[in-house]
Amino acid sequence: MSMKNRDFAAGLVGAIDAPAEPVARPSRLGMGVLAGRGNRLAELASGSLVNRAIELVDPARCRMWHGHNREYADLSEARCHDLIESLKAQGRQEVPALVRRVRDDPDHDYEVISGARRHWSISWLRSHNYPEFRFLVEVRDLTDEEAFRLSDIENRAREDISDYERARDYLRALDAYYDGKQTAMAERMKVTPSWLSRYLDLARLPAAILGAFASPHDLGIKHVTQLKPLMKPADRAARVEATARDMKATRESGAGGALAPADVVRALTAAAEAPRKSGRPSSAAAPRRSGTPVFESAGGKPMLRVDAAERKGVTLTLLPRSGASRSEIEAAFAKVLDEHWS
Fold first, then answer.
1. Distant-in-sequence, close-in-space partners of 271: CB < 8 Å, separation ≥ 6
2. Which of 11, 61, 107, 217 has its CA 20 to 30 A from that of 24?
3. For strand 110-114 and strand 62-64, is the pairing parallel, antiparallel, or unpaired?
4. Prediction pTM value
């Protein structure tokens, strides 16, 4: 091989062996940012990712939605104590309340759909030496019917909202959003019609019945199956409501303490029974046999019997299943004392 050809071959081998100039490429970081942004935009466009607006706001700029299912006026430090202590421990609100923007109120920017306890607790903390706390909200664009269902889903499993509050909210929504059609409402809420019916029955109980309880929040959904049958026929309902009003008056006068819900239900159930035809007055002494006095409850059932009144003493029998309230029993004892106490 000639000298010229050898030099050409060596140069060719050197060119092949020499490292090539690096081609300019985007950095992995740049590609990651661009790819991530592209993926997020694609997910938003497809609907698989929902972009939520989360904000920290002044609770004073928020008002309660008129359809909120909790009695905001009934909230107190005692009812919110667990949440207040949790907020103190965490130093902030972790779970946002659901709100929507309002544009017709110069004093408020948001309407609270769900999160009344959080709103009340943050407001309480800000006014009690914790001014750094702010209200964490998630802003949604919702119709009233959507707001009702969303609020119900969030609160349905909560134990800090009473059955009565939930029942009252369902009854309001039935006419407001579903034209009184129970089946349509149950379908939208994804519940059975019978489940919804029990709550509506609870909300429809007469005001007199609610007054027999120390608080309507004491009423549970389990009580409605016992109370609803007492409302028919009319004479039966009248006796029950009259007894309920008497129980409320006794409690409010201080003559008797607040009864447990189960005791209230028992007393009203006893009152539903038709009075005996003997013409004996309720809660008055009546001869059972040969001069043995028996005191009856408001429902006409024997509750206290005087078995003996001798020099050795007075023997009394407290009769079970009378449905009598504690105040009725105490009144009967008082009459025995008035008669036999020296």
1. 239, 240, 242, 243, 244, 297, 298, 299, 323
2. 11
3. parallel
4. 0.60
